[in-house]
Amino acid sequence: MIYEVKDIFAKTYPEPGKLYVYAQENSPEMDPDKRRPLILICPGGGYSMTSDREAEPIGMEYLAADCNVAILRYSTSPARYPTALLQVAGSVKYLRENAERYHIDTEKIVVLGFSAGGHLAASYGVFWKKETFLAESLGTNAEMLRPNGLILCYPVITSGPKAHRDSFLELLGERYEELVDKMSLEKQVDQDTPPAFLWHTAADPLVPVENSLLFFQALHDKGIPAELHIYPRGRHGLALANKKTLSYMNTGLQPECATWVPLSKTWLENLSCTDEPQTPMNT
């Protein structure tokens, strides 16, 4: 196992994000040239912190599924947009440039995010090419920054009536009025947005399920392959939804929701078979 920690700087903020890379070594006894999918994890935390429950425990699940994993502890408030977005872009660039060393399948670099980290992952999915300052700031071209898929877990998406308002206030600060409509990501989906796997609970009291519904509908309307699972019960912030990620308050256990992990692994296995755009719906 290769385990490394990399500073990821953004020009908009003096402190770096921290990228924790877990890459499995190849073996001459099996497949010495094997390339594995890479899951880049963005924990949630309302853009005010990054959750431990949505970081390493998640990575261990994907390592067990024969993936490589990177966990980005991105900069949060008082850092403002686009600092965290630039750190995701810098992470993807670094991982793609070091794909041979880390044995990464460059056609399966997937950004996974929870809650506000889901907003960050989805932001990257819609802005990686559209926002040309990302590639320019990193001295590269947009193709180096391409995400091949998104896994979005009870994500913050909309800044409309169903918004988790505090996430947008922490993300945008004094630029809230200027940028809040732009950060409503269901309005930003285009043909360059990658395929996505989403899950949410209908009972989520903090980030309403409409956030995932709106993003799924936007993807579907553009003919982008998308898979959505809605569970009837469950609070916000379930993480793995099993005993491994119980909170210190003994919350976060919803066994039926734990099926999102194997479902996402199956989706990942089929990603290369489903990443061709479908025919957009007439709207």
List key phrases describing it:
10 helices, 283 residues, 30% helix, 8-stranded mixed beta sheet, single chain, BD-FAE-like_dom, globular, alpha/beta, hydrolase, AB_hydrolase_fold
The amount of helix comes to 25-40%
The parts where pLDDT drops under 50 for at least 5 residues are none
Helix/sheet category: alpha/beta
Total of helices: 10
Number-wise, the strands total 8
Order of helices and strands: EEEHEHHEHHEHHEHEHH
Question: Approximately what portion of the residues adopt beta-strand conformation?
Answer: 15-25%
Q: What's the arrangement of strands in the largest beta sheet?
A: 1-2-4-3-5-6-7-8
Biggest beta-sheet profile: 8 strands, mixed
Summarize the structure in words.
One of its GO terms (molecular function) is hydrolase activity. By secondary structure, the chain is α/β, with parallel strands linked by helices. The chain is built from 10 helices and 8 strands. The chain has an 8-stranded mixed beta sheet with strand order 1-2-4-3-5-6-7-8, sandwiched between helices. α2 (83-97) crosses α4. The protein is globular. The model has no long low-confidence stretch (mean pLDDT 96).
Task: Map the helices and strands.
Blueprint: E1 2-10, E2 13-23, E3 36-42, H1 56-64, E4 68-73, H2 83-97, H3 99-102, E5 104-114, H4 116-127, H5 133-138, E6 149-153, H6 165-172, H7 176-179, E7 196-201, H8 210-221, E8 226-231, H9 260-269, H10 271-274
Helix pairs in contact: 2-4
GO molecular function, one term: hydrolase activity
Pfam family, one: BD-FAE
Protein name: Alpha/beta hydrolase
